[in-house]
Amino acid sequence: MKPDLDILGVYVPTLLVTLLGCYVIFHGIRRLLSAAGFYRHVWHPALFDIAFYFSLLGTCVLFLSKTTS
Hints:
Largest sheet: 2 strands, antiparallel
Strand order of the largest sheet: 1-2
Helix content: 55-70%
Number of strands: 2
């Protein structure tokens, strides 16, 4: 993974772009899970959400680091 991305002449950290991309993916999955009634079976939805987001973020970072090496 490159340390910085050049977006229209502005250097942006790659992790920031990854964080935002994972948030968009997470929000879509969260809406699907909520519509399916998944959160009725979860003990602590906020704890589940943060753990799921960081798991998704870790997976994305690992995938990006493997593809650019």
